[in-house]
Amino acid sequence: MHKDIREGIADFADLLLDAVFLVDANGCITYVSAACESIFGYTPEEMIGKCMIDLVAPADRDKTLQEARAIMAGSQRIGFENRYLRKDGSEVHVMWSARWLASQRMRIGVARDITELKRTQILQAATYAVSDAAHRASDLGALFPEIHQIIGKLVPVAGVAVATRDKHTEEIGFPYQMDTLGNGEVVQETLASQYCAKVVRSKQHLLVRGDFMSGLVDDVAPGTRGGVCLVMPLIPQQEAVGALILKSHAGTCFSDKDIEMLYFVSAQIAAAIERAQLKAELLRAALYDDLTGLPNRKLFRDRINSALARCLRAKSRMALLYVDIDDFKRVNDSFGHAAGDGVLQEFARRLTQCVRQVDTVARLGGDEFAVLIEEIHCPEDALTVEAKIREALVPFFIIGEHALRTSASIGIAIYPDHGNDIERLIAVADQAMYLHKNSEK
Ligand SMILES: Nc1nc2c(ncn2[C@@H]2O[C@H](COP(=O)(O)OP(=O)(O)OP(=O)(O)O)[C@@H](O)[C@H]2O)c(=O)[nH]1
């Protein structure tokens, strides 16, 4: 009986581009048409007698068995999708239409290779996901984990590292590294940066045997038990902004198709990174002083407001110090603007060293600086900081070949002793600073 049906369909089934299968009640393949070779990589002779489920990708086995049971219970199914492992180990996505032939006690199924279609769908989804992540992520730090997730849906990866190139210094940095176990170290940075620099220059990917952690790397084609590292260039338009390092699982490698797909997605990722970098730069320019790197007046006011809210809640004290360099104009006039810039930078550095990391030092403009000290116990604590600042200014400022002396006028306002709101506190600190300056003149 079985033989009859096989003979009946063989005449035309071998002409079909889809593969026709007959599978018995035990799940064994009893017949398959010629197209199986192009879809699964096995000849019909190699497939017949095999258990169908053994060829299914492990992750899809449960749902496939469930589907087979439904068919054998009499339902006719069209459009079931699962993945198989081809003879060469690669994955093939298959769409099925199948029914149970009760009289023959066999399933008849028609398998269509939808790998390319799936790839297009996956690429489309990844492209959308990257652009969505780029819009949602508040900064680069939030963008990188999302990129990791998106890549993980495209290709199996054991770890991801993002390398970015500094436009000015050409240095390679690693703002993101994460493996599947949650370890934040995927590559040894010194070693990996050499490969990334190569990829940034050539704009071509590199497939490296071994991993960047152990240092055992080899620029040879893959195929080792230890897995490989794929270094992809991140090119938004012309210049590479960095590189993406993808670590494969042990014993696996990335296929040419994977790499082709990753080139496409990497370009989208690169554009998202470039956009986030630009956003960060704009934000930085809006909130920080270019010369000293300190928060500017706008950010300082914001910090005061946040600190006031905290003080109100905790019923604590804080101090505002206005600090203005004395006779700064003379530095510019006598030694030039560049020397003046040098003094401002050194002044900022010394001020910053006088306070804790949680405190804020800002440049309000010109030679005017300000310090915000939170959680002081008594007004005298602010005087201690003032004394510290004066002491820090005692050593000569060595600017180029010049050794300069610098002093400053400092005004203090304490919350809540001198006022409850930002305007009042600023006014008190400013007036106190000018009082001090005038008394020195
Ligand atoms: N080099 C340099 N100079 C600056 C910068 N911003 C402002 N200045 C100069 O800083 C000087 C500030 O002068 P003044 O406000 O008179 O202050 P001063 O000379 O310290 O006088 P007093 O405050 O009364 O002690 C001006 O000469 C500005 O041109 C800057 O970014 N770099």
From TrEMBL:
InterPro entries: DGC-Regulatory_Protein, GAF, GAF-like_dom_sf, GGDEF_dom, Nucleotide_cyclase, PAS, PAS-like_dom_sf, PAS_fold. GO terms for biological process: regulation of DNA-templated transcription. Residues 316-441 form the GGDEF domain. GO terms for molecular function: catalytic activity. It comes from Zoogloea oleivorans. This is Sensor domain-containing diguanylate cyclase. Residues 5-75 form the PAS domain. NCBIfam families: GGDEF (TIGR00254), sensory_box (TIGR00229).
